[in-house]
Amino acid sequence: MTATATSARSDLSELGRSETALRTFLHGLPGVDQVGAEQRAAQLGTRSIKTTAKAQAIDLAIRMVDLTTLEGADTPGKVRALATKALRPDPADPSCPHVGAVCVYPAMVPYVAEVLRGSGVHLASVATAFPSGQAPLDVKLADTRAAVEAGADEIDMVINRGAFLAGRYQEVYDEIVATKEACGDAHLKVILETGELATYDNVRRASWLAMLAGGDFIKTSTGKVPVAATPPVTLVMLEAVRDFRAATGRQVGVKPAGGIKTTKDAIKYLVMVNETVGADWLDPDWFRFGASSLLNDLLMQRTKLTTGVYAGPDYFTLD
Amino acid sequence: MSERVAVRKTYKLFIGGKFPRSESGRSYIVQDSNVSLASRKDARDAVVAARAAVKGWAGATAYNRGQILYRVAEMLEGRRDQFIALGVSADEVDAAIDRWVWYAGWSDKLPQVYGGANPVAGPYFNLSAPEPTGVVAVVAPAAPALLGLVSVIAPAIVTGNTVVVAASPAAPLAAVTLAEVLATSDLPGGVVNILTGKLTETVPTLAAHMDVNAIDLTGVTDAELAAELEVKAAENLKRVLRPAPADHDWYADPGVTRMTVLLETKTVWHPKGV
Amino acid sequence: MFEYAPAPESRSVVDIKPSYGLFVDGKFVDPVDGGSFKSINPASEEVLAEIAEAGSEDVDRAVRAARQAYEKVWGPMPGRDRAKYLFRIARLIQERSRELAVLESLDNGKPIKESRDVDLPLVAAHFFYYAGWADKLEHAGFGGNPRPLGVAAQVIPWNFPLLMLAWKIAPALAAGNTVVLKPAETTPLTALLFAEICQQADLPAGVVNIVTGAGDTGRALVEHPGVDKVAFTGSTEVGRAIARSVAGTRKKLTLELGGKAANIVFDDAPIDQAVEGIVNGIFFNQGHVCCAGSRLLVQESVADRVLESLKRRMAQLRVGDPLDKNTDIGAINSAEQLARIRELSDAGSAEGAERWSPPCELPDRGFWFAPTIFTGVTQAHRIAREEIFGPVLSVLTFRTPAEAVEKANNTPYGLSAGIWTDKGSRILWVADRLRAGVVWANTFNKFDPTSPFGGYKESGYGREGGRHGLEAYLNV
Question: Which Gene3D superfamilies does the UniProt entry name for this protein (chain B) (predicted)?
């Protein structure tokens, strides 16, 4: 590492000590031209991924799925079934890999943990008064600790968008730092809720803020507001993790969540990862899809590639 | 009492807002007067003056240029008799004054008529606007001496070009006298430069000059010379306005072509986003 | 690693004949002297077809056919009917765009994603746009009774064969002229397929004539005394010769010539989009673009950062088979052009500029040139002054806005320019001072039929596109 990079690292770690320093840094990041970013994302979406490349991409995408259920109606039975599916997505084909993680509410964590124990499939839980984040900090931290104690090894927290949009960056930063501490060894994914941030400039700033505060992953959305993950939002976040690693040496993961329903969509994201940040991120440790229905489409396409026949939904489990 | 001896005028060139003699020291007799016989070096100096004036004149507001052209009309009105004394008909002087007024008004209207927003199929702001091409060499028509001259100068400069005018060799007095009007009209020096003398001496130099952007051959009556000049002009791809037909009616509505042919259209794109 | 498997577009969608005649007076005819030449696929050097070479007698026949059609049919025809033919052509192009795109990529070497996503949609849009003008000319702002000029001689280049045809033919026909068009000798095939589309549209015979051949054919066409209008897109050198040849005639002339555009990146630019714009600016269509952003002027304070991003991005460019849907950079159009690019690039190295290309494997057959940048370039280098017309970027730096403008304008060309900054007032200040016909701010290489295109200074005169583009074909 060069001397400049070392000093850049220590400079960045100082930023969280002052609202002014944070603001100056975040507002000094290069702007994002909306039209240009959207065009680049669309252009990457025109890549044509066929045959062997497609088979490779589908298996990778399956391994990257955070199989998710976040409903008021979730029950132990429902989440157990989902966890079982996570382990063996295609019971008919033992060569089919397991997914990256199962993602549930904290109250459901113990039931999922029973199923996943020792499997290598991670257990993620949303916390911090998901999805709005509108609760006192100590409640959010208690929520986090409870999820971790119940067996979650990944915590998906939400940032305080109200504070972010009001420019109270220090407050957002401090909350992330505190949550990270409450996580202990569990990995922290920071949900930016990009649909509420309105501009790509904000997405870039929020990404940096989350990374500076110690987030292990940055995640687009809760899935609970009308606009979830989009290719250009993910592109801007990928650029952020790329630049952050260049500046600090620390690699941060990215998780687009919500709205990714088809294999075609998933492959477009993988192409984007490949051409924006490269092979280092093409791994479930560094890129995840927050999704539920996506998995079955991936399985159907996978079957099509192996059998040469288009599959039908009746042949895949609905859990 | 003896009759008062008149003070005669020396007719000189008009370059960079000043009235120098030809650097060659030559003159010729025409219209009963000695008139400067401009050399190739005078043509070169005139181009230098015209180029130096481009930045300020093209950069002036359209409103300002319009006001100055209108001021020229005011000054010309005040000197009607001077032109009549040179043999220009009163009707022609009036028409020449009116022409300055007409073109003065175009300064802040042509960009609206000749440019505008383009509805491109995408999230872009897209605007086309005319800009002056730069330095224009102009061969003024021989007749009508004043109206013809005004009709080639005004459309070139109203949009922000600067000109080097080769006056009609046979009737240069109106041109030199017009220079006196221009010199007293708030027109910045170098915007209009006037050379008198032989066309064959100055115009080929102007046509070939690599720092001239356009050439108006209106006053060239010799077809062979016109073609030769056009060939020279091709060297740096000057915009060319070909000679006017012999029966051109200088009193008719001039239209906008004389202005637009000396304009460049610049189109600017910018994305629209948040 | 994520390797993309080949994703070739099928070449069977287009039917290439072994030989093509000239398209004169609505029919394909053999040339009078029977000469011919071959059009090859620059990506493989295979011969695609044998093409008739038009001599002066053939050109004369074509001009006479165009004259006849102008006087008897197209001139007198009501604008609304001319419009309907043009709309028909636009629709046929849309219907057959896949075929045309594949043919364009085969003959030209450009990647299929560009012929499919850029060229063909713009071609159809151009005809659609000008079709609508045909019956509205009196409202176009050129006076109440604008008249066509007559027969237009049109000579187009090889970089966007069908798009340049559209830029020439659509406004000419809308305004009521008839045309004789000469496509470039290395890329005649889509023009000949366009001739078939004219037949399919029942366009009256003689309204569009296509004469194939090289420089001599072009010269015969431009110098033909029976043409009223000459429109040329190509090199400044040939444009100059054409300007000389029409001197002293009544022929109206428009020229769209070379360029050496500056793409100016300020330190407050949206860097990621600027890098995309730089890449698009110089590597789009292998850099065979007259308005290519071939001089990158980057503010010294961000130069390292921009260059690092640019190199990283260039490493993602996929060079190879033009028909592969994932190819970003296709083949150089001809051996001759490749030699020119090599000569200038070698001059860049010899003059001390630092050359860099990403690692990339080039095919054995065909004409290829890896995307290349030169850093440490000064205004005095040949690669900063001469048009390379290839995937080669010269990088220069500046310190202040005034210096950027001065360097940008320090060229005999003046076709296009780019500005990258987040500061609105700076964009307008710089745009005002750039001597260029098209200024792209925070974007680059965008085209639209409604948007006038054309240069200042030695980049030519006249505008193509938009209302302005009509003026070139009207007696105003």
Answer: Aldehyde Dehydrogenase, Chain A, domain 1 (3.40.605.10)
What are the residues facing B14 on neighbouring strands? B194
Q: Do C422 and A46 touch (CB under 8 A)?
A: no
Identify the CATH number of the domain in which residue A247 sits: 3.20.20.70
Cβ distance B124 to C248 less than 8 Å, yes or no, reads no
The pLDDT, as a whole number, for residue A319 is 76
Q: What is the pLDDT of residues C110-149, one digit of tens each?
A: 999 999 999 999 999 999 999 999 999 999 999 889 999 9
Domain range for residue A164?
3-309
Phi-psi region of B38 (alpha: psi -120 to 50; beta: other; left: phi over 0): beta
Which DSSP string do the residues of C202-217 spell out, in sequence order? TPPTTSEEE---SHHH
Q: Could you tell me the domains of chain C?
A: 11-257+456-475 (3.40.605.10), 262-441 (3.40.309.10)
What confidence score (pLDDT) does residue A4 get?
47
For chain A, what is the domain count? Answer: 1
A11-25, C93-107, C328-342: the lowest-pLDDT one: A11-25
How many interface pairs between A and B have CB atoms less than 8 angstroms apart?
15
Mean pLDDT of B183-194: 97
The pLDDT value recorded for residue A8 is 55
List the catalytic residues of C. 256
- Amino acid A236 reads V
Q: What is the pLDDT of residue B2?
A: 81
Residue A11 is predicted with a pLDDT of: 77
Exposure string (b/e) for B183-206, b if CB count within 10 Å is 16 or more? bebebebbbbbbbbbebebbbbbb
Is residue A219 assigned to a domain? yes
At C372 the three-state DSSP class reads: strand
- Categorize the per-residue pLDDT at C475 as very low, low, confident or very high, splitting at 50, 70 and 90: very high
Q: How large a percentage of chain B has pLDDT more than 90?
A: 97
Give the pLDDT mean for C226-251.
98
The answer to whether position A316 is within a domain reads no
**Residue ranges, chain A, pLDDT below 70:** 1-10
pTM reported for the whole predicted model: 0.96
Q: Which residues of C fall within a CB distance of 8 Å from A36?
A: 270, 272-273, 276-277, 442-443
- A219 given a catalytic annotation: yes
A156 is catalytic: yes
Q: What is the mean pLDDT of residues B49-69?
A: 98
SS (H, E, C) A216-272: CEEECCCCCCCCCCCHHHHHHHHHHHHHHHHHHCCCCEEECECCCCCHHHHHHHHHH
| Mean pLDDT over each residue of chain B, to the nearest integer | 97
Structure tokens at A264: 């075609």
Mutating which of C438, C447, C463 best tests the B interface, going by the most B Cβ atoms within 10 A? C438
Put simply, the chain A residues between 54 and 83 with a CB less than 8 A from any chain C CB are 54, 56-57, 60
Tokens representing C319 are 């060079």
Distance from the C271 Cα atom to the nearest Cα atom in chain A, whole angstroms: 6
Q: Is B178 on the interface with C (CB under 8 A)?
A: no
Q: Which regions of A76-118 does DSSP assign to beta strands (E)?
A: 101-104
Taking contacts as CB-CB distances below 8 angstroms, the residues of chain A near B274 are: 34, 198-199
Cβ-contact C53, C214 below 8 angstroms? yes
**What is the pLDDT, as a whole number, of residue A317?**
87
Of B80-84, C31-35, C384-388, which gets the smallest average pLDDT? C31-35
φ and ψ of B263, to 5 deg: -120, 150
Task: Calculate how close chain C gets to A33, using CA atoms only, in Å.
Answer: 6
Amino acid at A237: M
The Cα–Cα gap between C381 and C374 comes to 11
Q: Report the greatest alpha carbon distance in chain C.
A: 65
The mean of the pLDDT values for chain C is: 97
